[in-house]
Amino acid sequence: MPVITSIADLKRIYVRKTPKMFYDYCESGSWTEQTFRENTSDFDQIRLRQRVAVDMTGRSTASQMIGQDVTMPVALAPVGLTGMQCADGEIKAARAAEKFGVPFTLSTMSINSIEDVAEATSKPFWFQLYTMKDTDYVSRLIQRAKDAKCSALVITLDLQILGQRHKDLKNGLSAPPKLTIPTMVNLATKWSWGIGMLSAKRRHFGNIVGHVHGISDNSSLGAWTAEQFDPSLDWGKIAKIKEEWGGKVILKGILDAEDAKMALSVGADAIVVSNHGGRQLDGAISSIRALPSILDAVGDQIEVHLDSGIRSGQDVLKAVAMGAKGTFIGRAFVYGLGAMGEAGVTKALEVIHKELDVSMALCGKRNVAELNRDVLLVPEDFEGRWQA
To answer: Got the DSSP string for 95-157?
Structure first.
């Protein structure tokens, strides 16, 4: 085991071991990738306030997210195609999250199915839903998540229309990968990935293939998914899905204060401030820059989480100190998964936990509940001065 001290260490191993199209799927944004870059660079603008001569014993990063006890205020975000980053990737990530004591969120566009993950784990996980035009399929998907005892439904709101992701288009992204000459040349250098895939439980979208009439292979799947994301999704439909689910609902993809108020009005249990990791509307502001205005709009009336840009425990600290009750990590755990499988996801969580714990202590705080804006030095114009 190499010495891993940061998420960047895992990323360096990840890029060596993972096929190019799946690395590019993870490590890219839409259009010019401005928002993708600023999700991380805007965190760098925030400084921490060091305090000394404070009792640092008895520290704890334990917290709660939507009433669920967590080892730290971090959840694994829903990431599509995770089972292509590493064989049985969703199962391995879910197991690592369960053992560490943080939530795992399974994507609708996962390789391992809801049932696969439920069979491989012993505690409830969260399920992320994309709303589709095929309402019968959506209803059956919700029921499958209920049957698997999923403890929360995470509804993604910002993918009614797919953002243009140049690298995915150029790579001809698919699951499993199309065997073009460039792809085969690249796969030949990723032999450990290929060996793992030979024994993978699935190599296609497990929540879709076999569950939609007429979808039995990847050729028919591509045409179906291209037409299925629902551009007519509105707050009325969200309210109906919430009612159909009947459990805790988290709305993901909120980047505007007015939308945060609407999420509150439909009775969501939490919202996730997110720009889809910079993979949808390029030119949108970063999640951490959007967070303050959203918190001002909804206060403590609804639980606010943050996604997009988290790469360290210090990023978690900054988001929580600014007012978020939890954070989601996507790329950070995928780097670990692609680098070392389940052990790599565990290592990613350990790295983030260590950074959070030590940084919190050096800011003079002993537990997450004590974190507030007093530990931050935020630029005066951080939220931006925008002319309407």
So the answer is: HHHHHHT--BEE-TT-SS-HHHHHHH-SS--EEEE--BS-HHHHHHHHHHHHHTT-SEEEEE-
Q: Distance between the two ends of the chain, CA-based, in angstroms? A: 53
Q: On the CB side of 351, how many CA atoms lie within 13 Å of its CA?
A: 24
Instruction: Decide if 338 contacts 27 (C-beta within 8 A).
Output: no
DSSP state, 60?
A: B
Q: Which backbone phi and psi does 88 adopt, to 5 degrees?
A: 55, 40
Contact assessment for residue 33 and residue 189, using Cβ atoms and an 8 Å cutoff:
no
Residue type, 182: P
Residue pLDDT, tens place only, 39-81: 999 999 999 999 999 999 999 999 999 999 999 999 999 999 9
As separate numbers, helices (DSSP H) first and strands (DSSP E) second, the chain gives 17, 12
**Residues that are catalytic:** 276
Whether the predicted pLDDT of 215 surpasses 80: no
Please, which pLDDT band fits residue 220 given cuts at 50, 70 and 90? low
Stretch 111-120: mean pLDDT, rounded? 98
Bridge partners, residue 305, by sequence = 272, 326
Sort 13 into a burial class: Cβ within 10 Å, 0-12 / 13-18 / 19+. middle
Q: What percent of the chain has pLDDT over 90?
A: 86
Phi first, then psi: give them for residue 304, nearest 5 degrees: -115, 125
pLDDT over threshold 90, residue 388: no
C-alpha dihedral sign at 236, 237, 238, 244: positive
Distance CA 193, CA 197 (A): 6
The 10s digit of each residue's pLDDT in 157-202 is 999 998 899 988 888 887 778 888 998 999 999 999 999 999 999 9
Across the chain, which distance is largest between two alpha carbons, in Å?
A: 67
Residues 6+ apart with CB under 8 A from 255: 158, 273, 274, 275, 284, 285, 287, 290, 294
- Asked if residue 54 lies in contact with residue 360, where contact means CB atoms within 8 angstroms, the answer is no
